[in-house]
Specification:
about 500 residues; Rossmann fold; translocase; single chain; ATP binding; repeat; six-stranded mixed sheet
Length: about 500
């Protein structure tokens, strides 16, 4: 079988830091080739070299057997390479079709031919099984639909090889399965897929070949069928990792958060929360499960002061906090790890230290008489970098230069190192590697043991089963069930996620 891509001895340095060291990669045409490794292993750097975003310091690139120099993404696109980035690059105010053809608009008589763009988008959508409404405004769509648009953008530009960087990080399990069907359709038509992922179950399910990177070097390239999940973990991390249910003592604390008959509307003015009631006690982890779009995001926003409630009460340690500002809620004792770390979790242009400081800049000992104590900030940032294993060159490194998983660690380090009694944790391991996920789970359990009340929102059912004392399942803005974390099955949770109220015996 012919090679679609061949990278020979690629080395990429950033100053004294070597991101890729003598990496070679051969990708067969018409295959799904997974690239895995921990955060900072060099996966995205290698793909950015292939896509022309970065220039290799050493090594050669061959596309369909022909040596290529790719000085920019335009050259990579012309060579048939397309890349869908982990964080989407769409314009919310434009339609689907306008986003697909942004920068390469179809024109007629000097004007943009909107009808032609809609027709071509519909044609691509039909051909590749990527269901979209070409005339819908992107700002109103789910992240799953947004990803389809990003893929359509790549296809509209003639890509024969598609790079997907953490494609399922923002998708529900159902959306992930739809994506895998799409990818299999691509390779059936002779296309090639490079698939970067942290989810080993997905790698085992969808890929034909796996390349493992560790510390910027290639560890192995093997047919997926010859490997087990344990083999991949060992190659990635260099040790065994367990994600079994974490042992814990009984919950005996008093209620910290009490939510009663909570209602709220979404951006369209429709009811997103409908009479939600629950409580979280000190030293308890309560999980929230549900397919995306069933009220979890709105619940997190209302609890953190980012969305108003239309009715109901939220009591934190006996104090009403509903419809107070985000700043007031934070000062009342709420720490918030948002589901979208780049939009609400960090300032990408600021340093690691500046992001650790956020929300504390007016508090002692971080500042005195309105002046930041730089020595204290630097010391605490170094301590948190070590504790949370943030892969950064220094506290002054801009957050935008870190991998997605390390950005998440910065958010967790800031939120988990305060004295808040209630932790609102939304998608804590989205886009995070195996080793970091284990460490984050350990930190969440450490917070539980310290007596914190924790509300854990996650689309990963295995994560909820491993960590939660109780699991609340949401459907259409309501809580369908309150399940024990111990002994519950994914099937039982899945029934409630689908809105099936008649539960089996293990749920009841």
């Amino acid at each position: 079988m012919s090679l679609a891509i061949e990278l020979k001895s690629i080395t990429k340095r950033f100053g004294s830091f070597v991101a890729n060291e003598d990496v070679s990669l051969a990708v067969e045409r018409g295959r799904i080739h997974a690239i895995i490794g921990e955060n900072g292993a060099g996966k995205t750097t290698l793909m950015n070299v292939l896509f022309g975003l970065l220039q290799p310091d050493e090594g050669e690139i061959f596309i369909d057997g022909e040596k290529k120099v790719l000085p920019n993404p335009a050259a990579a696109i012309a060579a048939g390479i397309g890349m869908v980035h982990q964080h989407f690059k769409l314009v919310p105010s434009l339609t689907v079709a306008e986003n697909v053809f942004l920068g390469m608009e179809i024109r007629k008589g000097g004007l943009i031919d909107h009808k032609a763009q809609i027709a071509r988008t519909a044609e691509l959508s039909q051909k590749f099984g990527l269901r979209v409404d070409p005339g819908e405004r992107v700002g109103l769509l789910s992240v799953g639909i947004e990803q389809r648009i990003e893929i359509l953008k790549v296809l509209a530009r003639g890509a024969r090889t598609i790079i997907l960087d953490e494609p399922t990080a923002v998708l529900t399990p159902q959306e992930s399965r739809e994506l895998f069907q799409t990818l299999r359709g691509f390779v059936a038509q002779g296309m090639t897929v490079l698939f970067i992922s942290h989810h080993l179950e997905e790698v085992m399910e969808v890929s034909d070949t796996v390349t493992v990177l560790r510390h910027g070097k290639e560890v192995a390239t093997r047919p997926t069928a010859e490997l087990t999940k344990a083999d991949l973990v060992q190659m990635m991390v260099g040790r065994a990792v367990s994600f079994d249910r974490r042992p814990r003592g009984p919950v005996t604390g008093k209620p910290v958060l009490e939510v009663s008959d909570l209602w709220a509307r979404d951006e369209r003015g429709l009811q997103a929360l409908k009479g939600v009631s629950f409580q979280v006690r000190a030293g308890e982890i309560v999980g929230i499960a549900g397919v995306a779009g069933n009220g979890q995001t709105e619940l997190a926003e209302v609890l953190s002061g980012l969305r108003p409630a239309s009715h109901g009460t939220i009591m934190l340690a006996g104090q009403a906090i509903q419809n107070r500002s985000a700043r007031a809620i934070r000062h009342a004792g709420v720490a918030h790890v948002p589901g979208d770390r780049l939009v609400r979790g960090v300032d990408r242009g600021a340093s690691v230290a500046q992001n650790i400081l956020m929300g504390r800049q007016d508090q002692s000992p971080w500042s005195r008489f309105g002046v930041i104590d730089r020595t204290y900030l630097n010391e605490q940032t170094k301590r948190l970098i070590s504790r949370f294993d943030i892969r950064t060159r220094s506290p002054e490194t801009p957050v935008k230069s870190l991998s997605g998983g390390n950005i998440q660690k910065v958010v967790l380090a800031r939120e988990f190192s305060g004295d808040a009694g209630f932790l609102l944790v939304d998608q804590p391991t989205r886009g995070v590697d195996i080793g970091a996920t284990e460490a984050i789970h350990s930190e969440i359990m450490r917070q539980r043991e310290a007596g914190k009340a924790i509300l854990l929102i996650s689309v990963q059912l295995d994560e909820l089963i491993a960590l939660a004392d109780r699991i609340l399942v949401m459907f259409a803005g309501r809580i369908m069930g309150d399940l024990p974390g111990e002994g519950v099955s994914e099937e039982a949770i899945g029934l409630l996620m689908a809105g099936v109220e008649s539960a089996p015996a293990e749920v009841a």
